[in-house]
């Protein structure tokens, strides 16, 4: 019987759970060097902003079909990856589950952790054949969660997701930065990522959903705070990222300045969140209008930055988006 535990993997919940997990895996394996905000920026994940109309906490991780959202992010790093996911209600799930058990263990044998939907995203960092269990970190606590091989993928959401990684061929920094700007533009311009459902808005429209939800008074209080926490943290990530790479392209300093100005609004946003002894942290009802006004100004600043991104993007060819594949815009069926 075999037991493997990758103790060098330490997940810390700070950013989006996917980035927290990815950073823990790549940094432990020596596949990424630098701060977490740089990883969030280069992958474009920091720019993802989605809001449910009732401000449910699922907003933060419901930024689209995960495979479609994560694949461009990982591709921009020049990193090899394999993933599988789906709905656990499908009759074929058990076959994919047992296959996943094999390749997850192989990745751990190779010294690489595995991203896993718990929910939210976490890291499978070990296994024990004798007990037939995986060891999982969620970033909230230092101890490991235990997942039986037979329970891999099962959770209350009805979705499962596993992703492994391999070697990395690092693209040039300008290439990665340019693509990250284009990923940001795409997220900003795409109002709905989970069609046919239109109860979750993305990008620019997410601002309107957040303000409307707050002003309605009929929203999930915990979700509202969670969305704001994620929003404020990722905007700090973007500002730090652009501060580091602003010299890569002429004009990018204008976008960096817009996000620096946006950061000046964050303390005011934080002051609109109160601590209730019974309900915990929630948006202060007396300061909802002020928070909405701050969010409106933030939207204007982010729009200004995206306009800069567009101008930079238009200066360079974009073969990945302008070249029609042999099969057209859809994959063969």
Model description:
The model has no long low-confidence stretch (mean pLDDT 94). Strands 1, 3, 4, 5, 6, 7 and 8 form a 7-stranded antiparallel sheet that branches. Strands 2-9 form a two-stranded antiparallel ribbon. Strands 10-11 form a two-stranded antiparallel ribbon. The protein has 2 domains: 3-33 and 79-168, Alpha-Beta Complex (Cathepsin B, Chain A); 173-318, no CATH class. With 333 residues, it is of the alpha+beta class. Strand 5 (121-128) and strand 6 form a beta hairpin. The protein has helices at residues 17-29, 36-42, 66-76, 93-109, 173-189, 203-216, 221-245, 252-263, 266-270, 288-313, 319-322; strands at 3-5, 50-52, 79-87, 114-117, 121-128, 133-137, 145-148, 159-168, 200-202, 273-276, 280-283. The longest helix has 26 residues, at 288-313. The chain is globular and about 60 Å long. The chain contains 11 helices and 11 strands.
What Rg is obtained from the alpha carbons, in whole angstroms? 20 Å
Main sheet overview: 7 strands, antiparallel
Shape: globular
N-to-C span: 42 Å
Number of domains: 2
Number of strands: 11
The oligomeric status of these chains comes to single chain
Query: Helices and strands, in N-to-C order?
Result: EHHEHEHEEEEEHEHHHHEEHH
- SS class: alpha+beta
- Give the amount of beta strand, in percent: 15-25%
Roughly what percent helix? Answer: 40-55%
Mean pLDDT: 94
Count of helix runs: 11
